[in-house]
Design a protein that fits this description.
Elements (H helix, E strand, L loop, with lengths): L1 H9 L22 H6 L3 H5 L9 E2 L5 E2 L6 H4 L22 H6 L23 E2 L6 E4 L5 E4 L3 E4 L13 E6 L3 E5 L11 E5 L15 E4 L4 E5 L11 E5 L15 E2 L4 E2 L8 E2 L3 E4 L2 E4 L4 E3 L10 E3 L3 E3 L2 E3 L1 H4 L3 H5 L4 E2 L17 E2 L1 H5 L20 H4 L1 H5 L22 H33 L1
Parallel strand pairs: 13-22
Antiparallel strand pairs: 1-2, 3-23, 4-7, 5-6, 6-12, 7-11, 8-10, 8-12, 9-11, 14-15, 16-17, 18-19, 20-21
């Protein structure tokens, strides 16, 4: 009886937050707790940095910075447990680095520490080259990724502005259109964003916000500031290009539900539901053609939404409510029976740009981008493997383990693995020799 009660308890959709967050809480970009709870990775990717998420608004809607308030602590949507928001509903809290690596059969090592007892040589990686538009070199964070296809100068989003002696390089991997942000605020003549094409005229200084630039693969943008302090906000640019369609090994919109009688969970109200309906804790729910199923463990109010809306804790909402592109949002949703879908195919590309799960943890939105649907090691996608994409969990605290060319990062080289293996073998041999000597001495003493 207790087991059935717990099963029913964990299947309940999120309806109330406990404890209550601060009244009128928002971060310094104006995002409230509901915004963080709408997408599972937002809480851990964006919610633990006081540099981004500081301050809350009082009754007069003014910012107060007397105390740093961090989303992970203030927003109940980011708390663990069945009354928390979609970000941390069970079973997400059980996802760890070990389970992430075990999915692709990582081997245990004979040493531990930060490496979590698993050899990175065997863990998951994926080539995002088929959908990558650009690469960025910014060793000290002088430029920042914004989603998958935008980049900005340091501090642009938080309005804190860039630093002196900042420098970064953006290199195009394919032909694209570049659109500058609504506001370019730089010290003209001293802090310069330049365009360096392989052929054609060079733009020594981009200062106009409302301009579009057609670029070719190999073209570069250079950002460089002088050594004097500045109080300017900076710039942001976004890239658009024609990309091949990307298939997914699981959860793609080619999967349809409600086409035949469904067997429900033990904790659901009914044992089965007829065709055209889907199971839920409160009964059988309509799933009409042209709609998609809302994931049961997501804390959503509805069980299905039409394909022009998105599942949300408050109901079915338009894309403007969540800020997620509709096509990207629908990519991993199950469609109600009768919804027309096109078969997905894996793209081919000569661009090599490998990434690991740590990369998906570094920017909110990457788990919903096309990169997350590319097949990597053993044919698995980031949605199949990475804790951050499955449950919103950030677990790779030691940093990346795969370089862009697919080789292991420093500290995880094949030679390091071989050295560790050799040392373990030598220790084992010495132990066997020692045991043999002890046995021989005992036999001699008894003779």
């Amino acid at each position: 009886m207790m087991r059935l009660f717990l099963a029913a308890l964990f299947s309940v959709n999120w309806a109330q937050c406990q404890p209550e967050p601060k009244a009128g809480w928002v971060d310094q970009l104006g995002r409230d707790c509901a915004w963080y709870g709408a997408e599972k990775e937002r809480c851990e990717v964006l919610g633990d940095s006081p540099a981004i998420n500081a301050g809350y608004r009082d009754e007069a809607k003014k910012f107060s910075y007397h105390h740093i308030q961090i989303t992970m602590k203030d927003c109940c949507e980011c708390q663990e447990g069945i009354l928390g928001g979609p970000a941390f509903n069970a079973p997400g809290k059980f996802c760890t680095s070990n389970t992430e690596f075990e999915i692709v059969g990582a081997r245990e090592t004979s040493w531990s520490s930060v490496h979590k007892n698993y050899k990175k040589a065997d863990t998951w990686r994926v080539n995002i080259g088929p959908v990558a538009i650009f690469t960025m070199e910014a060793p000290n964070g002088e430029c920042e990724f914004v989603g998958s296809n935008c980049v900005s100068s340091r501090g642009y989003r938080t309005k804190k502005g860039y630093y002196n002696t900042d420098a970064c390089t953006i290199t195009m991997l394919r032909d694209a259109t570049v659109t500058m942000g609504n506001d370019i605020d730089v010290e003209e003549g001293y802090d310069k964003l330049s365009f360096e094409p392989q052929t054609g005229p060079r733009i020594a200084e981009i200062v106009t916000a409302d301009r579009r630039i057609e670029v070719k693969a190999g073209d570069k943008f250079q950002w460089k500031t002088d050594k004097y302090d500045s109080s300017y906000r900076g710039w942001q640019m976004c890239f658009s290009a024609e990309l091949p369609s990307v298939g997914s090994s699981s959860g793609s919109n080619s999967v349809q539900v409600g086409c035949e009688e469904s067997t429900c969970m033990a904790s659901d109200y009914f044992l089965t539901c007829p065709a055209g309906k889907i199971c839920g804790s409160g009964g059988c729910y309509d799933c009409p053609a042209g709609s998609h199923e809302c994931p049961r463990d997501g804390g959503f109010y509805a069980r299905a939404c039409t394909n022009d809306k998105q599942c949300h804790w408050s109901g079915c909402v338009p894309p403007t409510r969540t800020g997620v592109d509709q096509a990207t949002y629908l990519a991993d949703k199950s469609m109600c029976c009768g919804t027309a879908t096109a078969p997905a195919s894996e793209p081919e590309s000569e661009i090599i740009l490998y990434k690991d799960c740590w990369w998906f943890e570094q920017e909110e939105g990457r788990c919903r981008g096309p990169e997350a649907s590319l097949k990597g090691s053993q044919g698995l996608t980031a949605k199949d493997v990475c804790c951050v994409c499955k449950y919103g969990r950030v677990v790779n605290h030691w940093g990346k383990y795969v370089e862009d060319d697919g080789s292991l990062a420093e500290g995880w080289s094949e030679s390091a693995v071989a050295e560790e293996t050799s040392l373990a073998s030598e220790n084992s041999r010495l132990k066997r020799t020692n045991r043999a000597l002890v046995k021989a001495l005992k036999e001699i003493s008894l003779a």
